[in-house]
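Reply to dn_fold:

You asked what the input looked like. This is it:
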Amino acid sequence: MAEPTDAYPDAATNAGGTADTADGEAALRDALDAHGEDLAAAIERSDELQDLLETAILVAATADADEIEHLTESTANLVQAADGLSTAETVALAEDVGDSGEDLAEALAVVLELQREGHLADLVDLAKTLSALDLDPETVQGLNTVLGAVGEAERESEPVGVLGLLRGLRSRDARAGMGYLLALLKAQGRRLRR
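and this is what came back:
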């Protein structure tokens, strides 16, 4: 492998050469005329181009033929990969990710917290179970009603005796609840007989 160096020979840049550069110079001028503003903007934004060029010159000046071939193949593969990724869909995806970055970070934090606490697998199992249920909108609404009533009862319940129970059954809400329970019992009985 080539030894690292802090300088590069003049031969690496053709500084001392007298090669005919008319065609290359004309092509360079044409390219600069066509894309000069873009190139100037890129150069102004960063000194990285200077560093990249110096590094490329040092590598080219000190590398042997096998290293140059490997570098060329790697660069070609990288360019092909970047070209394959630069589609309208990936650009749109990148824009969406950029627009939703904060939301995505929060969602990822929640998922990671569930994973650390050991609840993520339980949540996935629950989702599988719920997706296997045959729930129509009326069933979902009924479950929401029952679960809401359980929460209310938990907050409002107090001990009563037999007379308190009989007095409570006379209320409009208790009669509606008994009607609901009676309908539930009838529906369950029909399903059991099927």
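The chain has nine helices and no strands.
Hope that clears it up.
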